[in-house]
Amino acid sequence: MVVNKSLDEIEIIAALLNDVYTSHGAVFNKRALRLTLEKVRQRTRSEGLGFLTKTLPSLGKAFDKALSNATKLSGTKLGFDTLPDSELPRFLGEFFSLVLSPNGDLLPNPCNNSVRIIRQILYLFYKYELPYSDEQEQQVLSQFEKTEEELTALSPVLQNLEATVANSYSTRRKRFKALTQVDIAREAKILLSSVFAYFDPTDIKPRHGPGAVATKQRLWEKFQWNNVSGRLSRMYPLDAYFYASLSHVCDRLDTLSRISEDDLSARVILVPKDSRGPRLISCEPVDFQWIQQGLGRAIVELVERHPLTKSNVFFSDQSHNRCAALYGSACLRYSTLDLKEASDRVSTDLVRLLFPSHVFTYLEAARSLSTVLPDGRVIKLQKFAPMGSCLCFPIMALTVWAILTAAAPDTDTREGILVYGDDVIVPTAYAANAMEHLESFGLKINRDKSCISGLFRESCGMDAFNGADVTPVRLRTVWSSTPSPDVYTSWISYANSFYDKRLYRTYEYIVGKLVSLYGPIPGKDMLLTCPSLRETPECEKKIRARFNTKLQKVEYRVRCVSSPEIIHVMDGWLMLLRYFSETSSVAQSTTLEYRKHSASDIYQSGRSAVSSYTKRSTSMLVYRWR
What we know:
The protein has four domains: 9-128, no CATH class; 219-468, no CATH class; 485-565, no CATH class; 569-610, no CATH class. It has 25 helices and 16 strands. The strands form five sheets. Strands 2-1-4-5 form a four-stranded mixed β-sheet, covered by helices on one side. A four-stranded antiparallel β-sheet has the order 6-7-3-8. β9 (456-459) and β10 (462-465) form a beta hairpin. α3 runs antiparallel to α5, α6 (134-167) packs across α7 (181-195) and α6 (134-167) runs parallel beside α15. The radius of gyration is 28 Å and the shape is globular.
């Protein structure tokens, strides 16, 4: 018997449509199921996967706009046949008719379940990480350069504004009133000055990040300094921030003279994002990344505990924005804003304008001045920090918060502003003005994804309509017939998500393909620390088991994801430097636990911790007893 290990995207749609027929047979009958599936197969044959990854999501975006009362839905304009005497698409028309009127407007009492079904089918393959073309790559790079040109043109405006603010009365306004751009900038600067009043930008703990660097060193090579920018070392001296101790400096006096003080450029790389094209990431020079990690973490810790920001600006918890989006879709009190090219639109001049000078001096020293494009061209950076810099996310969030809070008309509005990166929540009454204020400082609003009217809201992965969660399961990782740890873990997660949404046929189809390729997979009820499915009664019977007498428990031999560990013993001083940067904080938080062990045990565990590495993108599937 030949087992089919391949996966057909159309068959997933077929399984999904069968689930819809099972749960909504009164609306979506057998005839509708057959005609819809035929249409999917016909258009996929003629258009390829683009029908699933581009055409259907385009219809989904137009549908979302109709839910937001932004525009009417017109199936004809999107290349779909329409229902008789209607602008609604015939494709899934049974459900569109329960949400929208024949002219494409939102009905007075739309059906939440129909919205959920439509969006699940239309957005299923929207994030599919298919290989991108050279044309898509060039579009991303061209947009990157175009943004730089626009920021350069904006620079004189912000510089003049900075001079005006510096000469204006700088006391906090006592009552809210209509504001000019100068007033907003001054108030934003006062707010950020309050946040950073007792912040010491030199009190940081530098460390290396897990990502690649422009200078292409491997992890253990990052601790050997071959280049430290003179501009950076003047603010963060070598002996205090780049060496483990003064003794380390003394032992390495012969190498200090060989350390270059050049400003190296960052390096732009393109990484897969989804079916729409690649994402642009900037790899920072290793010396800048070292300081950026420490400075960025210190700013995040400050913002998360400061009274002015701890309830409005978030870096690790998306739940506040998600809940606000869900609540806003029901009561319409809150709107969601999405910033376009957010990380690339925060210019250095804007950061200089808003942030206190004692902080900006160090922020400016820790940013790259230029970057190298894939074709080898070097361009000067006008943006403060591109995506990839550890300073990008916190500075962007604080900039947005400061502008919106400074321009808010009252205290209640200020309290209703929530910022998580480029996802912003504002009171609906303030939304139109908020967008104008942000764009006046060079930021751009993605109006297609911003929801300020209607019953639809979207923020931080929460798609909400009329108080209901209508977030679809979006497939990202492309299926592979060759065993792969990424495919294994991702598709188990997708299957579980479909199960949680009661889409059981889709769940069973994916599970069948997984089992045919990977063999028996454990279920969640087995309570194992490995990727597990919600329900696999037949698989559990086939998994090898044994009784561990030492642990007095039954163990199962199951697949786990493991990354091969690299043991690379560095020079003693470099190992100590890594220990101080990465493990000292852990040691401080577990002092009581360390007291249980001898000094030699502590030494050996610390030595192992700073000499072992996990190479990125080297995960593999292995069998383990769990």
